[in-house]
């Protein structure tokens, strides 16, 4: 299971890097175009939407690495089983949120699927909104992995 999830994370990193690279290139094009007083309409939308995808991919990876922002005052005071129980409670709450992202993100994606981009009418807004249910699913997988690992550690496993 760990190898499959590691592969999933690696693919996700490449997707995030690709969108961040697109963002950087498009912003550079936008800067050059403004300097040359050339109007390029599509750069703003591409920059915003690629940045959204890069951020969501990065946020999901941070969930896997447990590197997201957290208040750990209480957690740092606990050890052993109590710490694992708190971790499980936190992860179950996070899982509820990510499943909410998955379910309602899918509804948003479907709602906006046939809306077109302003500057590139052949592109559908559904592709932009697809990042929400996708990362909801990925974060849910990572959180379930954390819950399973905590249960194994509570039972004296590695």
What does this structure look like?
It contains 6 helices and no strands. The chain is elongated. Helix content is 78%, strand content 0%. The chain is mainly alpha-helical. The mean pLDDT is 92. Helix 1 packs antiparallel against helix 2 (42-64) and helix 2 (42-64) runs parallel beside helix 6. Its main location: membrane. GO terms for molecular function: transmembrane transporter activity. It comes from Maledivibacter halophilus. Residues 24-150 form the Tripartite ATP-independent periplasmic transporters DctQ component domain.
User: DSSP helix count?
Assistant: 6
End-to-end distance, in Å? 15 Å
Helix content: over 70%
How much of the residues is beta strand, in percent? Answer: under 5%
Structural class: mainly alpha
- Principal-axes geometry comes out as elongated
From the alpha-carbon coordinates, what is the Rg to the nearest angstrom? 20 Å
Major sheet summary line: none
Unreliable stretches covering 5 or more consecutive residues: none
Number of strands: 0
The SSE order reads HHHHHH
pLDDT averaged over residues: 92
Number of domains: 1
